[in-house]
Amino acid sequence: MNILTYLKKQKSTFAESPFNSVDALVLCWLAYFSFPDYLKSGESVALKDIVGRGILPEEKMYAEAYKLKTSKMFFKKLTESERFKTAELCDFVSEKDDELEKQFAAVCVKISENEYFLAFRGTDPSFTGWKEDFNLICRYPVPAQSAAAEYFAREAEKFPEANFYLGGHSKGGNLAEYSAAHADKSARRRIKAVYNFDGPGFIGEVCAESVIKIVPKSSFVGALLDRRNNFGIIKSRAFGFLQHDPFSWTVKGDDFVYLKKRTHSSVRIERAVNRWITELSFKERERVVELVYGALNTLDTKDFNVFFKTVYRQLPALYRQYRRLNAEDKTFFVLKIKRLQKLLVSK
What we know:
The chain is an alpha/beta fold. The chain is globular, with a radius of gyration of 20 Å. Helix 6 runs antiparallel to helix 11 (282-296). It contains 14 helices and eleven strands. The chain has helices at 3-9, 21-30, 47-53, 58-61, 68-80, 127-135, 143-158, 171-181, 185-188, 264-279, 282-296, 304-309, 311-324, 327-345; strands spanning 45-46, 88-97, 102-112, 115-120, 163-169, 191-197, 211-216, 232-234, 251-252, 255-256, 258-259. It is 44% helix and 17% strand. The chain has two domains: 3-263, Rossmann fold (3-Layer(aba) Sandwich); 280-345, no CATH class. The strands form two sheets. The chain has a nine-stranded mixed sheet, with helices on both faces.
């Protein structure tokens, strides 16, 4: 069973059955969708009423989410779900700025009287979104982190009597943690839990309380820049990096299926990459990021969904860009990549 099956089988309301981690993941996925302007104006609309009120054409609504067919099915089941259909959405925000290298989106969900869930979007398919991800290793805070903290502050002020859950998948989980850690004392006291679903850690000091971090057994993204290792480890039906897909995560009853430890390869890659990052100075990290992003920017697409589908066509273009590097940049890049390769194969 996965979250799609959960939506069909979970019949109880939040009053009958407490909010849980699977519910949190379900609501986090809403942040990947785009919604009409009426949900940006402060108006609240129940999920069951959104379709009748009007939604965006599917090419716009699901443009920022991967797995279009699955996401469409997910939204339909969500609006029909006995548990979620009366939840109200409001204050949808979506911001992208190529110059600032910023990609941010969030939505507020009222799940019961004076209880709200703030869902933060993870990385969208745009090169801008991925560049901000790369910047996580060399800049702190990145613009989306600051935007997340501001978003929570606004919602906490708007609903002064409310308690909050915060959460996100991938980069969205990182944003949820950051926003909780940088909230004022009054808002922090009203946080019931912070959910980070396979999101990376931080290069700066972040101390958020009540964090529930959940990663699949072969996690890569969620293990980056995070030394805590007190994760909830869950079973996935996918293989390797594809386990980042939350639709592959196994659900039983009203919770995930948990495992005792991550795979050996996941731990080995995490240690190698984290060590490689820490060995680089901040200037070196930024240089690596700019070289990689500079090469990507020469391609005939600015969408990572398209890039991955046409990767064999794109590889020759990336190699040609590498050949065009000046001698100094080429030597620097090769040395750093060889060092990473050595760390990855060492025991």
